[in-house]
Amino acid sequence: MRSKSIDKNVSEFRDGLNKGFRYFGLLATDLGAYGKDIGHNLVDLLTELTKEKGDYKIGLRNINPYHLNDMFEQLRPFFASGKIWFLSSAAESGSNRILKLMRRQYTIQEYIKCFRILNKEYPNIFLSTQLMVGFPTETNEDFQITKQLTNAVKFDWVEVYTFSPANGTTASTMSGQVPEKIKTARFRQLYRKTIFQHPHRKMRQLFCL
Predict the structure, then answer these.
(1) Tens digits of per-residue pLDDT, 171-196?
(2) DSSP 8-state assignment for residue 183
(3) Domains within the chain, CATH numbers bracketed
(4) To bridge 41 with a disulfide, which of 35, 101, 107, 164 should be the other Cys (CB 3.0-4.6 Å)?
């Protein structure tokens, strides 16, 4: 893990502001882990960035739900400030059994709790997630629970993808690999559900910026 220093981030942010940019994104493989290698965290970074004056918005991309849950109360002042326009956090599955096999270190109940607060108290934040189908041993019951997640929480965008084994990973050699035909069928079901479930009002607004 390697984090860019807070000073470097602030310098790039100021440069963008001086050039007239209004929308910014903090990008990482896991933004929630930011700063752990340099003695800081995401809250420290946002504290420094939001000291800058101006009409701007900041997007938070790829916060692992484990970290989102852990620092949620510390992040709420930034959500309430109106400076955060986007947040993505990959749920991956609605099934706690599958999440445990993925070693995701959170429960779906913790995830839902955070996102329901975001839905209710900060409705202007664009919320995005990722859902995977076909992880090894996934049953139809697990899949149905994942489908129900999109009823429990209102997302503005959902990316659906299928499990694909990567060489050297534990999951690639697990027993109970889901047949490709079943993975494809589940992908299509979930994709159709997420596309037609909500009008994606915020997405239309985003494309008009």
Answers:
(1) 999 999 999 999 999 999 999 998 87
(2) H
(3) 6-207 (3.80.30.20)
(4) 35
